[in-house]
Design goal:
By secondary structure, the chain is mainly α. Helix content is about 80%, strand content about 0%.
């Protein structure tokens, strides 16, 4: 059953990847919110803590993946805004 959770989470988190691609192609990030990114980091951090406390690999890995996607998106936003 853990595999189902992992696949579902991976699909959900992957929704951010097209946003990254669009930002890189258009060089526009004005519609991206710093607040949304921060809230996502907080939520993922709490979920990672929970996943570690119950030793659930899928929860941990999906939320680490979420943080990676958000970090890339935030990095692209900062790069484009400060170039």
């Amino acid at each position: 059953m853990e595999a189902v959770g992992f696949v579902g989470g991976a699909i959900s988190v992957s929704a951010g990847v097209p946003q990254i691609i669009k930002c890189l192609k258009t060089k526009q990030t004005k519609d991206l919110s710093y607040v949304t990114n921060c809230v996502s980091y907080i939520g993922s951090s709490i979920s990672i803590y929970y996943g570690v406390s119950i030793a659930h690999k899928a929860i941990i890995l999906i939320n680490v993946y979420s943080m990676v996607v958000n970090t890339i998106l935030l990095s692209v936003k900062l790069y484009i805004e400060n170039r």
